[in-house]
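Question thread 4412

I'm putting together a teaching handout and wanted feedback from people who do this every day. The idea is simple: show students a protein as raw sequence, then show them the structure tokens that encode its fold, then repeat with a second protein so they can compare. Below is the first pair exactly as I plan to print it.
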Amino acid sequence: WDETHFGKMGSYYINRTFFFDVHPPLGKMLIGLVGYLSGYDGTFPFQKPGDRYEQHNYVGMRGVRLYRLFCAFLGSCLVPFAYLTVLELSKSLPAALLTAFVLIFDTGCITLSQYILLDPILMFFLMGAVLSMVKCNSCADRPFSASWWFWLSLTGVNLAGAMGVKFVGLFVVLLVGLNTVYDLWDLLGNLSLSLVMFGKHLLARVLCLILLPLALYTAIFAVHFTVLNKSGPGDGFFSSAFQSQLIGNNLHNVSVPE
């Protein structure tokens, strides 16, 4: 059922048809983009679960059997992400290999990664954020180095990605936030560190973990409203002034008073 739901929304992006959904747009936007790049024309109706795709090119959006494209590829990335995270935390190769082994043979993870769903995209950004956070923590002895800035910035990018797919991404924002508070509290208690240097640490985290994710999250919606410029099933949820901007709407180009 969910594949029917989100596959249809991918088609809406390809056809630039405005729609409304409870989730933020990044996941569906990426599904539509990959479908478009792989040759899908957005004409499949996605009316009910189990409909045959026939001649429609769905491979780009959905990874089946030997295909490791997009959702399947992102689901596959969870294994090395988990391996690297555990290896960094435990410094134990057996522990990291066991973690990777468990995920490789997890049928739920395999199944979720086969279909046009938001779950593998969400988990990719969630685990990416955790890995980036752990890697950034490992660079604590060389702050403001290139690798430190890279992992801190990548953490912010992954936070925006997780929140941009589903609001459940707030949980990884909370995790990174608690880690950051602990880190800053530890730095504040370091008497050998000047207040100026502490201020630089604080500013770097505000820049990479607050301002950068907010900017990216806002940009996602800017792209969403720019691409979806044609009237569609989501019109009724919005004001008459907004509907007047949609091509094909009954109110298109009508002057609507405030």
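The second pair follows. I'd like the answer to focus on this one:
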Amino acid sequence: CFHQVKIWNLTKRQCIRTIQAHEGFVRGMCARFCGTSFFTVGDDKTVKQWKMESPEYGEEEEPIHTILGKTVYTGIDHHWKEPVFATCGHQVDIWDEQRTSPKCSLTWGFDSISSVKFNPIETYLLGSCASDRNIVLYDMRKSTPLKKVILNMRTNTLCWNPMEAFIFTAANEDYNLYTFDMRFLESPVMVHMDHVSAVLDVDYSPTGKEFVSASFDKSIRIFPVDKGHSREVYHTKRMQHVITVKWTSDNKYILCGSDEMNIRLWKANASEKLGVLAPREKAAMNYNQKLKEKFQFHPQIRRIAQHRHLPKSIYCQIKEQRIMREARRRKELNRRKHSKPGSVPFVPERKKHIVAVVK
């Protein structure tokens, strides 16, 4: 049912607890930094804090705290070190766990905010995505917004790199992901282009070297941070639009939730053997990995390493988009050829998608 929260035991693959959390949809959920409790927000305009442990025999399933807000909240995230959390809806509210009203409310523009995320390293920094195509950065200490970048299309969510303080990746409606350095928002560090439909969620690996993205095109992809194309794509016949995705803290698995109401568990490294490895197995795997790296640019090795089977729908859409991209490039070349020199400037791919940066 849509107003429930379920807690799962991943090793046994069983649901161990079901909570009737909210009236209406549960819009957001986050754990406290110590792991003893978690928070949920829903369509009933409430924020609730729950114990992570199951209630004792005969004890009722009730929240520790309930805060009644004024508007519907669309997302929530907890501070990484302090008893502070942030919610978003019509504005970003910063809450102290002990109080029933927000410490401060941050707003810049008048549109609904879809997600808010705390920076895991510089813990006083927050990032939020609004439906007016903005990515806004806030400083909790100053109680004011810092700056915002406006893109061509709406950003659905963002995720901070857990190893590099100023780097974050945004999942956009225009099928791309953008990795930004928050100090230089004029152009992204990297544009990641492989999905063929809107990107709905993104999450970093604990090493900070890769991230996983979930898309409306019924697939999830793993991107290296410094590469424009994905190293891996996961899909199944039954998996529909993928709404949310998470990378586990042991860097071994990826969890995704999709439209057909299933949670799927994937290996972060598809060919990795699960379980205990014998020393000789480990040595052989390392040796094979080094061989792959050494000969990665050999045409036949590269073809094998890069080939992935894709569903027909995605394959056809990739082909179609390649044709469209080529047509746009040809049109621009023709326009430049038949125009006054300098009147049609060269715009790099990284700057094409940025409308403005406001400070």
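Top answer:
Good format. For the second protein you could add a caption like this: The mean pLDDT is 93. The CA atoms of residues 121 and 159 lie 12 Å apart.
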